[in-house]
Amino acid sequence: MEDTVTSQCEDNIDVQCVDVRDYHLAYKDDLVNTINIPLPYLKRYYKEINRKTVHLIGRDEQEISRSAHFLKRKGYRISGSTIQ
After folding, report:
1. What is the pLDDT of residue 17?
2. Taking Cα atoms as reference points, which of 24, 16, 71 lies closest to residue 43?
3. Does 55 score more than 70 pLDDT?
4. Closest of 66, 4, 43, 65 to residue 17, by C-alpha
5. What whole-number percentage of the chain has pLDDT above 70?
6. What is the chain's mean pLDDT, rounded?
7. Integer CA distances (angstroms), 23 to 12, 52, 75, in order
């Protein structure tokens, strides 16, 4: 599964990978070209996402769904998601 995330994040310069998991879960994976903005902080820090197309990484469907819903309302396009 990590290979899929790596290829999404490294190979496609038009897509910004956003890890919405908590910091203590995300730091273990250390994915390249991925920013970590946990779901509770997304409202405050979503402007740090520098591309309009986003690939979400989360721990479950609910976390990804809530993040996608929020980002879509802010004008971002969700290209895909990965549960990790």
Report:
1. 93
2. 71
3. yes
4. 4
5. 89
6. 88
7. 24, 23, 25
Which ranges of 1-84 does DSSP label H, i.e. alpha helix?
2-11, 23-26, 42-45, 61-73
- What's the token pair of residue 7? 């290829």
The token duo for 34 is 């991925």
Owner of token pair 């990965």: 82
Is the full-model pTM beyond 0.85? yes
Q: Residue with structure tokens 């997304």?
A: 42
- The backbone torsions φ and ψ at residue 34, rounded to the nearest 5 degrees and listed phi first, read -125, 135
In this structure, is the dihedral angle defined by the CA atoms of residues 47, 14, 22 and 67, taken in order, positive or negative?
Answer: positive
